[in-house]
Design a protein that fits this description.
It is built from 22 helices and 23 strands. With about 725 residues, it is α+β, with helices and mostly antiparallel strands. It has 6 domains: about 70 residues; about 100 residues, Beta-Lactamase (2-Layer Sandwich); about 120 residues, 2-Layer Sandwich (Beta-Lactamase); about 70 residues; about 160 residues, Heat Shock Protein 90; about 140 residues, Response regulator (Rossmann fold, 3-Layer(aba) Sandwich), CATH 3.40.50.2300. The strands form 5 sheets. Strands 6, 7, 8, 9, 10 and 11 form a 6-stranded antiparallel sheet that branches. It has a 5-stranded antiparallel sheet with strand order 2-1-5-4-3, sandwiched between helices. It has a 5-stranded mixed sheet with strand order 13-15-16-18-17. α11 runs antiparallel to α12, α13 packs parallel to α14 and α19 runs parallel beside α20. The longest helix has about 55 residues. The termini are far apart. About 0% of the residues have low confidence.
Length: about 725
């Protein structure tokens, strides 16, 4: 029994005795009895005083013990919490507050779960529930958060108890085990670090455990994210990831754990971002790999900040957009240039056609010309054809520069091209007394090239060798192998030669190297064209010259095998005479043309053909009506017509059964290669360009008339066959 209880009972007994004894009874008592009673009271008071002294001494001892208890409670090396049934902290010692970096008052009435890392809260709730239900002590390891957000490992132990009112509560003990966990992580990562390599690489490397908690954060990662390793060790990887990516990255890591790959990228470049300590996001490339050390899974994430790369990529994209815009503008400009050149070609050829056409008629007319007239006509033709060559060369050069000149690379017989060029240039050489020597091909020699362009290059070089040669000089053409599959064609002359300075300016457009003052005509474009064409055919061109002794121009092409011969390839076309035949049947030619000069020129040409009747129409609609009404044998069609153009007229005629068999020959000043190609693809029988070359025109006209006659015969035979079949079949009633 405690001292407090004894005292209380003595005082109660004395009070009872005093109360029970009335005043009258005291007076009636004897003196001896009164003295005895007073003695008993005194003794009782003394006993009470002694008991009070003992009680005071016990209270002092109790207060001392209590003070010592709370001192030990607050200064214990571990944290103590008392948590009520609702999970709120009702009591905590100073060590617990110090571990969490807060004042003790900040803990009271706060949920303990608030100070536990979110990823580990399930561990706490699971153990707490089990403890309250079964009374079994709680023991687990989890991570708690300091007030600055730093995570650290603790060991949480707890027992069940009851408060003063009998309600259940938890009495928890927290032990800081962060150093031990870091030491364990360091041991686990001993294989990962590769003798310090992880800490010396330039890429950020982060290692996480199976719970996605950071257990390694190398210096490169510190620089990239702006956190020190101490600030993030123990935290979830989510701390370094913007909230919008956290779920996706967690799923990627979980899915990775189910694979056996040694490494895998975490998303496409530019799809994922890191979160810096200052709150800004930055793009990263990340790949994840997995290790298993002592039975535990460890994921290492290698990251690279691609902000600068993405910035450069964006700049490149913007540059590409600008380039595309510039290309589109250039294409538009090229298209405008092509249209301009095509229009200019048409506009220049139209008047030139009249000049050359009528000059040819006068030169080949039946009425003899005087010497002066003949000389004048020759000058008109010479100047006209020169002007036409100049127009053609300028247009060809423009096409090459715009990249729109198309070549047909095939197997070309060098001997055949040489023979053609020799025939075309011999007369010019003979006028100047120049002797030309061409190689003899003992065996066939074929080059991979465009036949027309090789011929153009050779004629240009031969013409230059003639023009700039000495009178009665010589020209030697040679062919030699320059490499295993290449052949060099050289044209050597005995002219004045070229200086090194002249050679350096040789292939510049319109640069005639001082020959402008001479009587020799030239444009300064031919060699430029030759160089561009040779390069397009994968060849080379050059010159060797010695002043006063002459020059040697050469070009090289690739050798190839002979083409496969077919029956059509070796069948020679039947020659056609461009003259009127005696007693020939009358034929009809319809010419659709809006230019009076061109109409007059063709009328004058057809006058020399009494077997041909000429019909004319000045626009497409009139031409269609006349063709349907008269059914001419051949139709000559201009392209640029008022109302509808010549291509549209031909389409309408081809759609009409009555006129679809009539050959339609295009005759146009649209002489660009794409114009000619477009015309042939549209179905024209032939495509002639202005100015008209009379002999070429007459030959084409005869070919078309012969074709028309053949078509008519087939039509008659088909009609007769159908008639015979109907006669042979018996009729029915």
């Amino acid at each position: 029994m405690s001292d407090l209880t004894k005292r209380q009972r003595a005082e109660a007994r004395l009070s009872q005795q005093t109360t029970a004894m009335s005043k009258e009874k005291l007076i009636a008592m004897s003196p001896q009895a009164t003295l005895e009673m007073m003695h008993d009271l005194l003794v009782h008071e003394i006993e009470l005083e002694m008991q009070n002294e003992e009680l005071r001494e016990s209270q002092l001892a109790l207060d001392l013990v209590r003070a010592r208890y709370f001192e030990l409670y607050d200064l214990a090396p571990v944290g103590y919490f008392t948590v009520n049934e609702a999970g709120l902290i009702t009591q905590a010692n100073l060590t617990a507050a110090s571990l969490l970096g807060v004042d003790r008052a900040a803990l009271i009435r706060k949920p303990l779960s608030r100070f536990i890392v979110k990823a580990d809260q399930d561990i706490y709730y699971l153990h707490r529930k089990k403890l309250l239900e079964s009374g079994e002590p709680l023991a687990c390891e989890l991570r708690m958060l300091k007030s600055d957000g730093t995570a650290f490992w603790v060991q949480l132990g707890a027992t069940a108890a009851q408060d003063a009112e009998g309600a259940p509560e938890l009495r928890a003990v927290l032990s800081d085990i962060n150093e031990r966990k870091q030491a364990e992580a360091a041991r686990l990562l001993s294989d990962v670090r590769l003798s310090g390599l992880v800490y010396s690489v330039l890429d950020a490397i982060i290692a996480i455990d199976a719970k996605h908690c950071i257990i390694l954060f190398n210096p490169a990662a510190e620089r990239m994210f702006g956190f020190s390793a101490a600030q993030v060790l123990g935290l979830s990887l989510d701390r370094l990831v913007p909230s919008r990516f956290r779920s996706a990255h967690g799923k990627q890591i979980l899915s990775y754990a189910d694979t056996k790959s040694s490494s895998r990228g975490m998303g496409k470049s530019g799809d994922i971002f890191g979160l810096h300590a200052d709150g800004h996001e930055f793009p990263i490339d990340a790949s994840i790999s997995q290790l298993e050390v002592n039975g535990e899974k460890i994921f290492t994430v290698m990251l690279r900040d691609v902000s600068e790369r993405d910035r450069l990529y964006q700049a490149l994209q913007e540059k590409n957009i600008a380039v595309e815009s510039a290309r589109a503008a250039a294409d538009k400009a090229n298209l405008a240039k092509s249209e301009f050149l095509s229009n200019m070609s048409h506009e220049l050829r139209t008047p030139l056609g009249a000049i050359l056409g009528f000059a040819q008629l006068m030169d080949s007319g039946t009425t003899p010309l005087t010497t002066v007239q003949k000389r004048s006509i020759d000058q008109i033709l010479k100047a006209g054809w020169y002007l036409l060559d100049l127009i053609n060369e300028i247009l060809d050069l423009a096409l090459i520069e715009s990249g729109k000149l198309s070549l047909s690379l095939e197997s070309v017989s060098l001997a055949s091209v040489m023979h053609e060029c020799q025939t075309m240039t011999e007369a010019q050489a003979q006028k100047r007394g120049i002797t030309m020597t061409f190689p003899r091909f003992e065996t066939p020699c074929f080059v991979k090239a465009d036949h027309t362009r090789v011929k153009q290059i050779l004629i240009n070089l031969l013409s230059n060798a003639i023009k700039y040669n000495a009178v009665s000089g010589t020209i030697v053409v040679e062919c030699t192998k320059s490499a295993a599959q290449r052949i060099r064609i050289s044209i050597s002359d005995t002219g004045a030669g070229l200086t090194p300075d002249q050679i350096s300016h040789l292939f510049q457009p319109f640069n005639r190297l001082g020959q402008e003052s001479t009587s020799e005509q030239g444009t300064g474009i031919g060699l430029v064209m030759a160089k561009r064409l040779i390069e397009l055919m994968d060849g080379d061109i050059g010159v060797v010259s010695q002043l006063g002794k002459g020059s040697t121009f050469w070009f090289e092409l690739n050798l190839t095998s002979a083409p496969a011969l077919t029956a059509s390839a070796v069948t020679l076309p039947e020659p056609v005479q461009a003259t009127a035949r005696d007693n020939a049947p009358q034929r009809t030619l319809l010419y659709v043309e809006d230019n009076p000069a061109n109409l007059m020129l063709v009328e004058d040409i057809i006058k020399r053909r009494p077997d041909i009747t000429l019909l004319t129409a000045v626009d497409g609609f009139a031409g269609i009506k006349l063709a349907v009404a008269m059914l001419p044998d051949v139709i000559l069609m201009d392209i640029n017509l008022p109302g509808i153009n010549g291509i549209q007229v031909r389409e309408i005629l081809a759609a009409n059964p009555a006129t679809r068999h009539i050959p339609v020959v295009a005759l146009s000043a649209n002489a660009m290669p794409h114009d000619i190609q477009k015309g042939l693809e549209a179905g024209f029988f032939r495509y002639l360009t202005k100015p008209i070359r009379v002999m070429e025109f007459m030959t084409t006209l005869d070919v078309a008339l012969k074709h028309a006659q053949s078509q008519a015969m087939h039509k008659v035979e088909a009609q007769q066959g159908a008639s015979d079949d109907s006669i042979a079949k018996p009729g029915t009633d």
